[in-house]
Amino acid sequence: MNNLQTTYKNSLALLTDLYEITMAYGFWKNKMHRQQAVFNLFFRNNPFEGGFAVNCGLDYVMDFLKNFIFTDSDLSYLAELKGNDQKPLFDQGFLDYLRNMPFECDVDAIPEGTIVFPHEPLIRVKGPLLQCQLIESALLNFINFQTLIATKAARITIAAKGDPVMEFGLRRAQGVDGSLAATRAAFIGGCAGTSNVLAGKKFGIPVLGTHAHSWVQAFDSETEAFEAFANTLPNNTIFLVDTYNTPKGIDNAIAVNKKSRSQRS
User: Within a 13 Å sphere around the CA of 84, how many CA atoms are in the beta-carbon half?
Assistant: First the structure.
């Protein structure tokens, strides 16, 4: 089994649905693979029943396309696939074609962070039909997920009316890259920072944080926990107030904050 480093460093040409490859094979078999085509990526309805969406994911798309190749490992895997008759699914000639195929599509796109609307092309891909088909699933994956996150972040940021919003989704995200992509998309959507340290390093996003409920539970009282945290990080004190009782937690946080300020003044 591949480790994470191998998985994310290699070409992602196989990040696709099988039917994209079988369709590409069909185009090649029918000598249609060089036929010029135009694919438009768009969505039909605004997410969250809102009035807009925030376009996101383009940087991932461009990195994917710049590194779009079928490696020897990819082609060996495809050569092992069998049809219902237990014969190879693909002719060797098709796999050889994929091995030597330069990427030739032209791509036009709306910049990330732009407000977009239903039925508006976010990405336009023009090129050989076979290549347009092969990249369809990956582009949908990058744009759909990250646009959803960026849009949600924008809606929450607007509702906050100027107060900074922090992204804190690592522990609930869909896998390793899901967490990185979502953090980046939330930042594009308006979030001021993230709890995700790896994303902070990778994308230059400010890293922010509170403490966990476990910090409060490690002390005899909430007030003692708040005081210890304030003394430990006087320049980065953000309290989590809902461990036991939120209204009382707010009162305790205010009291500790006032005490800390008076001691530092």
Answer: 0
Residue with tokens 């910090």: 215
232 near 241, Cβ under 8 Å? no
Question: d(Cα 134, Cα 14) in Å, to the nearest integer?
Answer: 9
In three-state secondary structure terms, 83 is: coil
Distances (CA, A) of 18 to 29, 37, 58, 247: 16, 20, 23, 54
End-to-end CA gap in the chain: 58
Contact call for residues 198 and 228 (beta carbons, < 8 A):
no
Write out the chain's pLDDT in tens, 265 residues.
344 445 555 678 998 988 899 999 999 999 999 999 999 999 999 999 999 999 999 999 999 999 999 999 899 999 999 877 888 899 999 999 999 999 999 999 999 999 999 999 999 999 999 999 999 999 999 999 999 999 999 999 999 999 999 999 999 988 888 888 999 999 999 999 998 888 888 899 998 888 999 999 999 999 999 999 999 888 788 899 999 999 999 999 999 999 988 887 6
Nearest-angstrom CA–CA distance, 131 and 102: 10
Which residue segments constitute the domains of the chain, with CATH numbers given? 9-159 (3.20.140.10), 161-209 (no CATH), 213-264 (no CATH)
- What is d(CA 223, CA 255) in angstroms, rounded to the nearest whole number? 9
Half-sphere exposure in the Cβ direction for 48 (13 Å, CA): 15
